[in-house]
Amino acid sequence: DTQESARLEGAKNIRIFPYHSLVTTADEAYTSFGHSTHKLKTYTRTWWNIGWLVAELQGSRTVQYEYIQLSSSFEATMDDTALGLSELGKRLKSPPKSKDALIKLLTELVEALANIGHGFKDLDSIKLPLVQPAIIHNGSKDVQLLAAVCLGYVFKGSAPDCPYDNETLKEVFPLIIESLRHLGGPNQVGFKRAHELLQTLAKYKILLLMLDLEGASEDFVPELFRVLLSYAINERNMYTIDADILEVLGVILDEFDSISAAEEEDNSLEIQTALLDEILRPLMPPQKDDKPSAYEVTKNLLHRAENKLQPYVQRFLMEVIDKGGSDNSDLEGDHRDFIYEIYVAWPECMLAVLPRMADELQANLEETRLKAIDLLGRLLLVPGSTLASEYRTLFMEFMRRFSDLKPSVRLAMLSWASTYLMVSSEGSHLAEVPAQVCAAVHKLVLDFDDKVRLSACSTLCQLAVHNLDAVPMEYLQSVAQRLRDKKVPVRRGVLQHLAQVYRSQGLAIHGKGVTLTSTPSGLEWIPGKIVRCCADVDLRQHAVEPILHDELFSPKLSAEVCMQQWISTFAVMDERETPSLVFLLRQKQKARQALRLYLDQRTVLREKSKKDKETLEAIEKMCATAMRLLSDHFPIPSKALESMEKVHELKDGHIFKNLDKILDPAATVHELHTLKEGVLKRLGSKHEAAEFMKLLLIKVSLSTFNKEHVTSGFKLLKECVQNPKEDKRKAKPLVSAGFTLLNMLGTAFPLLFVDTFDDLQILLEDRELGPLREVVLGGTSSMLSCIVPGLAGDATAMKHVKKHEAKMAPLLAGLCSADSRELAKHAVRALCALAGPENAQSAGKAAKSASGVLAGLFDKLVTAMLKNGGPASSSEQTALVVAMQSIGEIAQLRPLLFETKADAVHSFALKLLPNPATKKADQRADKKPTKAAQTSLCLVHTKALKMLVKSCLSESKDAEVCVRASAHAKELLQVLYGLLTMEQRAVDVQLVLAAGSGILQLASKHDMLVTPPMFFQLTTVVQHTNPTVRAGMLRKMKKAFDQNQLGLKYAALLATAAVDPVKEYHQNAMAILTQVVQSFRARARAAQARHAKQKEGAEGPGSRVLILSMPEYIFTYVIALLAHHPNFPAESNKKVKLEVYEPFQEMLDFVLQALTTGSGEKSECCAALPFIRKVLRYIKNTEDPLDSACTHKLYVLSDIALVLVTEISAANGWSIGNFPSSIPLPTSLFRALQSRETSLASEGTQERHPSQKVRRGDGSYLPAHFRLTVRGFGSKTKGQGAEEEDDLSAVLPSRRTTEKTGGASGTALVLKQDPQGAGPSGLSKNAGGSKRNAAPMEESEEEEEEEDGPATTMNDGPWTKEEKELYLDAVRLHGRDMMRIKEHVASKTLVAVKSFWGRQRKRLGLDKLVEEHRMAKDGGCDPEAVAALLAMDSGEFRFSSGKRAAEETLEASRPKIRVLVGSGGEADA
Questions:
Q1: What pLDDT digit, counting tens, does each position of 291-313 carry?
Q2: DSSP 392-432
Q3: 1350 cis-preceded (ω within 30 degrees of 0)
Q4: CB 1419 within 8 A of CB 1453
Q5: Angle subtended by helix axes 653-662 and 690-700, to nearest 10
Q6: 538, 491 contact by CB (below 8 A)
Q7: Alpha-carbon span 1292 to 1278, nearest angstrom
Q8: Please, which contacts does 338-343 make with residues 24 or more away whose CB atoms are closer than 8 Å?
Q9: More confident: 16 or 557
Q10: Contact 1117/1197 with Cβ under 8 angstroms?
Q11: How far apart are CA 991 and CA 1264, in angstroms?
C-alpha cells in the first residue's frame, strides 16, 4: 500500500513483484526466473506471502535484509501484545469448562490478535492451544466462530511460514469454512465476527494453503464455495460481503490449471465436478429465485474467472447433452435448464454448446423437440439476446419447427411467438427477426389442425391489440377468413379475437373529436365480418349479439364515436353482411315485442280478483304463448322456456319493473347499464335462470343502437352536409351509408326517431346540397317511409308526424316529379307513409293533408303520362319514366287510389309494350332505330312493365280490388309469356330480364296463375345468351328467396345454371340453391316438430305438409323442367349422341350436390336419397299431361338421376333405405298412367305410344352405352361392348333380372343388355304386374322393401390385402370386364367383385386404371406389358412368374410402348 511503498524509497535498483507472487527464497527466484513475474506463480504452494510487497535488488542477495528492515518498524509496538498473547496462551492450554468463560477468553484473544501485523513471531504460545479438540470441536457454534477468527489472525501473523502441519490444517480449514456460515445468520454479533474472519481470509489469501492438502479440491474447496454462495450471502449482507467473497473465491479459481494444462501435467490441479456443481448451483432454480444475491455474486465470479471456467463448463454441458446427465454431478434438472441459466448469466460460454441443440430440434422424439423449442424460445426472450444473429443456422432450424409434422410442436412454437412478438413490437414496424416470426405465424392460419389455426389467429390478434402497426392488414384479413372455418371452436375464437382488435382501436381515439369523415383506422371491415356470422348455422345471432353488446365497443366511448365507427363500417359492408345486420335488428325487434307482450299479459294476470275463470285461462294461455315466443330467440328454446317459467314464478316486482324500463326506447346507455345490473343483482348469480337472464338482457336492450346513437348520427350527417369546408364528393359514400344505416334502424325501432322530424324537415328544405342532393333527399324520404308506419300505434309519436305533415307533404310531392327515378320512388313512399292507412274516407281529406297532396299528385302524374304517349325528346322521356315510376309505387301502396284510373293506366302501358305482330311489321318496314333511340325506348318499355307488375302486387284487403288485381295479373302474365317466347334478337335484353323478373314477382302473389309453360319458359332467361340477363335473373331470384317470396318450384330454375360458362354465375347459383335447401330443411324440421306434438293417430312425418316442405321435393320440378327443355333429345331421334345428355347430367348432379353436400348435417344429406329415389320411381309411373312426347324424356331423366343417386350413396358409403310414406306429385306436371287392364283392353284396337310400354325398372330408359360424366363418377370416353354393361350393373343395384352365372359361388344377380339397345332392361319381377300399375302414384311397403334391397345377398367376408392386389392387377389387364376380373380373383364371387368396384372405385382410383388399360388397348400395346411397366416403376412385381417374367414381357412390348407414349424416346418409354 502507499505507506509501505514509501519506506522503500531509499532502496536502489528495486524490482517490485505483485503481492501475490510467492517464492521459496529470493535467491532461488532470482536464479531461476530472473525478472519474470508471471512464472513466480508456480511456487504459490511452497511459500506463503503475507500480503506485502517483495523487493529484489538486482545483482545481490539482500532481499531478506530489506524484508527484516521493513518488519523492524513494528517490533517496538508488538512487545506488549506478545506479553498479552503469552498470558492468554497459558490460560488457553487448560480451557475453562464453562461455555461463557471460554467465550470470554476467546473474545479477549481475538481483541489481542487484531492488533498484530504480518510476520509476528511470538505466536507460539497460542498456536497449539487454539487447535486442541476442546476448542475446534467444541459443541458451541459461538466458541468455534471465535476460534476460527483467532486462527485467521494466527495465519496472518505467522507469515511467511505456515503455522501448522498438514494434518492440523485438515482440522483447521473445515472449522474456518463452517464458521463462515454465520455470515448468513440473523445474529448480528456472529455476522460481525464472521465478516472479520472473511476479510482476513480475503486480504491475506489464507485459504490458498488448502490447495496443498490432499483431497482439498474434492472436499474443502467445494464446501467453501457451497458455504459462501449458498448459505453466507443474502439480501441483507450482499453489498457488505460480496467483494470479499469474490476475492476469496476468485483467488482460489486462479490457482487451478486449464483443461489443456491439466491433460499435459501429472500433478496438475483440475476443477472437479463437485466444485463445478457448487459454482453453477446458485444459477439454477430454485436457488436462483430464493437467493438472487448469490445469483449476482456467482455471475460476477464467472466473468472474473471466465478463462479458467469456460472450458470446464463447456465440457460439463457437452457431457450432459450427450448422456442426458453427468455421472458425477449432483445437480438436479434437465440440461436445457443448465444451458438457459448459464446463457443468461454468461452468454459467451455457449459458443460451442448451442449449435448442438440443432440435433435436438431434428430429433425423432416429439418430446425432445418440444424441450428444445422451449429452451431456444426462452433464450430468444432473454433481454439483449443475439442468438438469432450469432447462431443463424440454429435459428433457421428453430423457425422450421413452425412447419413441424406434429401439431403439438407447432402449438409450442405459436405459444413462444405470442410472447416474443409482444416483447419485440414496441416500434411502428417489426424488426427483421420478429417480422420473420410474424410471417411464420401467418402461414399457420391455414394449418390442417384446428387448434393450430386458432392459436395462430389468437397470436396475430393479440399482437394487433398490443400494437396494430406491427401486424400487416392482410394478416388480419386472413384471420377474418377463419370465420368461415369448418371447425366451430375456431370460428368462435376468431370472433372473440377480432372484436378485441376492433375494441382496442376504438379506445385509441377515445377523447378525440370525430367527424363523419375522420381518418379511418383500417379496421372498419371487422364489424361486418362479425355480423355476418349470424348466418352461420353453428354460431347464429346468439354468438354475435354478446360480441356487439359487450366486446366490440368500450363503455368509455361516446355515442358519437360509436356511431361514426358504425357508419364507416356500414360504408364497406358487402351484400352478404348488410342483410345479416338487418336480420340482427329484426331479431332484436321481435325479442322486444315478445317481452313486451309477456310483461303486459303478466300485469293483467296479477289482477286475478277482477277476472272470471275463462278470462284468466285466456290470459294465462296468452302469457304462455309470449314466453314460448321469447324462448324461440335462444339457442335451445326448450331450456330457455324452462328458465323463463322459473323467472315467471319470481315474486320480486322490481325485476319486472326494470325489464319494463329497459324496453323504453328513450333509455340512455348509462340507464340501461344500471337497470341490467339491478336485475342481475336481484336475481342473484346462483339462480338457475341467471345465465338465461344475462342473454335475455342482451337480446332486448338497445345498448348498441339507442336514441343517443340516432341523435349522434343525425348530428354527424348535418355537420357533414352543412359544413362548407367538407369535400362533398369524398363524403358522399359516408353520407349515403349513414342514411342507409339510419333507415335500417328506423325500420326496426321507429320510436327512436320521434324527436328527429325537425332535422328531417331541415334536410328536405335545404337547397344547397350540391353533389349530395340526391343522397340526402333520397335518404330523408326513405327514412320517413320507414319511420312513419312504425309510429302509427303511438299517439304521442303521431302528434309529431301531424305537426310536420303539412310542410313535408308538398316538399315530397315536388320530389316525385323530379328528374331522378330513385329520388321519386323514395318520395312517393314517404308521402304514402305520411298519408297513413288507406281507406274509403282518406280521399275526402283536406287538400293540404298528405292524403290530399297524394291524390292531387296521382292525378297530375296520370294526366302527364297519358298526354306524353310518344316521347320525342330526352326530357319528355325522362318525365314519362319518372311518372310511370311514381305511378307504380302509388299503385302498390295505395290500391284504392290507383283503382280510380287503373283501366287507363293499364291500357296505356300495354300499348307501349312490344308484341310479336308489331315486331314483324317493324322488320318488314325495315325500321332500324339508332342505338340511343333503341335504348331509350327499352327504358320506357321496362318501366311500363314494372309499373304493371307493381299494380298487381298491392296488399289491399278490399275484395273487389283483389279480384281486379288477379284479372290484371292473369292478362299481364300472358303478355310476359309472349315477350319471352319471341326471338332473343327481337327483344332487348333489359326487357327480357324485366319480363322474367315480372313473372317471379307475380308468382309471389299469384302463383296459381303461372301455368307450366310459363314456368318452363323461364329457363330461357336463366340461360340467356347475354350474361347481363343471367346475372340479373340470379340477383332477382336471390332477393326473392331471401324475402321468402318464392316456393321450392322456382328454385328448380337454378339447376339450369349448372352449365353456365361463367364460373361466377355457376357458384352464385349454387350458393342460392344451398340457401334455399337450408331454409326448406329448417321448415321441414319445424313441421316435423309440430306434427310430433299432435295427438296419437294423426299423420306422422310423411304428412303432406311435411313432404311439400322438404327440399328434396324439388326433384319433381327439376325433372319436369328439364324434360321440357328445348335441348333435350326426343325419343324419335335415333342418331342422338351421348354428349347431348352431359349438360343434363350436370344439372341433375348440381341439385343433388346442393341436397347431399351443400348444406345440412350428414344424417340429413344421407336421408335425402331415399326420398329422391322414391320420387324418381314415382315419376316413371306417370306421364306428361302437357305433351305426350315428353313422357319418355321424364323416364330418361329419372333413370339418369337414379344412376347419380346410386353413385353418390356408393361413394359416401351410405345405404339407401326406404322412405316410409307416399309422395304426392304436382298434378299440373304429372298424370298417373292408366291401369294395366285398361291398357290390355285397348291393345286390340289401338297401338300404344312407345312411352306406354311397360319397362319401369331402374335404368330401363337409359340410352345405349350411357356413362356418367360428372363429379368424377366416370370418364367422358365412350365405352365399348360388355364393359359398359358391367359398368351400369355396378351402379344400378336394384330392379334386376336374375341370371345364372357359372362359378364357384353359385347364383348372382346381374343386368342384361336390353335387346332393343335402349340400355339395361332391369325389369323387376313385378314389372308387368297389376299391383304396380293399379296405383302408380303410391307403392306398397312390401314392394319398397324388395326394390330397396341390397345390391348383393352374399357376404364373402372382408377383402385381404392379397385379394385387393390381385383385383388391381386384373383391372389393369382387363379394364371393367367383370368376368375376367372374377377369374383373376378366384376367391371371390362375381357379385363380390362388382360390389367391391362400387365401394372402392373412388378410393382406389379404379377409373384411372381403366383408362390406362384402354390407352394400352387403343395403342396396340399388350396390356400385360403396361402392367409390368407400372409394377416395375413402383418397385413391386405382382406377377406370379416374378421379376424376370415381367422384364421379358416388357422387353417384348417395348416398341409398342414407345409408340404409345409418343416421341419421347425409348428412355421415356
A1: 889 999 999 998 888 888 888 88
A2: HHHHHHHHGGGG-SSHHHHHHHHHHHHHHHHHH--SSS--H
A3: no
A4: no
A5: 30
A6: yes
A7: 19
A8: 338/280, 338/284, 339/375, 339/379, 340/375, 340/378, 340/379, 341/280, 341/283, 341/284, 341/285, 341/288, 342/280, 342/283, 342/313, 342/317, 343/379, 343/382
A9: 557
A10: no
A11: 42
Instruction: Name which of 129, 145, 122 is nearest 93 in CA terms.
Output: 129
pLDDT at 212 over 50: yes
Q: Burial code of 631-666, b = ≥16 C-beta within 10 A, e = fewer? A: bebbeebeebbebbeebbeeeeeebbebbbbbeebe
- Rounded Cα distance between 69 and 24, Å, is 19
Q: Does the structure show a pLDDT above 50 at 462?
A: yes
Q: Rounded CA gap, 1267 and 1139, in Å?
A: 10
* Contact indicator for 526, 477 with CB cutoff of 8 Å: no
Tell me what pLDDT residue 1312 has. 30
**51 pLDDT more than 50:** no
pLDDT band of 394, cuts 50, 70, 90: very high
Q: What's the distance, Cα to Cα, between the start and end of the chain in Å?
A: 95
In the chain, the percentage of residues whose pLDDT exceeds 70 is: 77
**Confidence check: pLDDT of 1352 > 80:** no
What's the whole-number mean pLDDT along residues 747-770? 87
Quote the pTM value.
Answer: 0.70
**Grid coordinates in use for 1048?**
321450392
Dihedral pair phi/psi, residue 191, rounded to 5° = -65, -40
Strand partners, 55: 16
> Which residue has 394400352 as its cell numbers?
1416
1180-1194 pLDDT, tens digit each: 999 999 988 899 999
Cell digits of residue 32: 531461476
* Per-state percent for the chain, helix, strand, coil, to nearest 5: 70, 0, 30
pLDDT at 1398: 78
Q: For residue range 1034-1049, list pLDDT tens digits in order.
A: 999 999 998 888 889 9
Query: DSSP character for 285?
Result: T
pLDDT in tens, 1193-1204: 999 999 999 999
Where are the extended beta strands (E) located within 1137-1242? 1182-1183, 1231-1232
Contact 885, 942 (CB under 8 A): no
CA distance 152 to 167: 17
What is the rounded CA–CA span in Å between residue 596 and residue 601? Answer: 9
Half-sphere exposure at residue 907, Cβ-oriented, CA atoms within 13 angstroms? 6
Q: What are the E-state strand segments in 610-695?
A: none
Q: How many CB atoms lie within 10 A of CB 1134?
A: 8
State how far the alpha carbon of 1402 is from the alpha carbons of 1285, 1358, 1382, 1399, 1409, in Å.
19, 18, 20, 8, 11
The H or E element that residue 540 is part of is helix 540-546
Strands (E), 229-386: none
167 has pLDDT over 70: yes
Of 631-645, 1024-1038, 1045-1059, 1365-1379, which gets the smallest average pLDDT?
A: 1365-1379
1295-1301 average pLDDT score: 32
The DSSP line for 806-867 is HHHHHHHHHHHTSS-HHHHHHHHHHHHHHH-S--TTGGGS-TTSHHHHHHHHHHHHHHHHHH
Q: What b/e sequence results for 62-83 when a residue is b if at least 16 CB atoms lie within 10 Å of its CB, and e otherwise? A: ebeebbeebbeeeeeebeebbe
**If pLDDT is split at 50, 70 and 90, which confidence band does 260 have?**
low
Three-state DSSP state, 1318:
coil
Whole-angstrom Cα distance, residue 948 to residue 891? 9
Query: Which DSSP symbol is given to 636?
Result: S
Q: Give the Cα separation of 1186 and 255 in Å (integer).
A: 114
Between 886 and 268, the more confident residue is 886
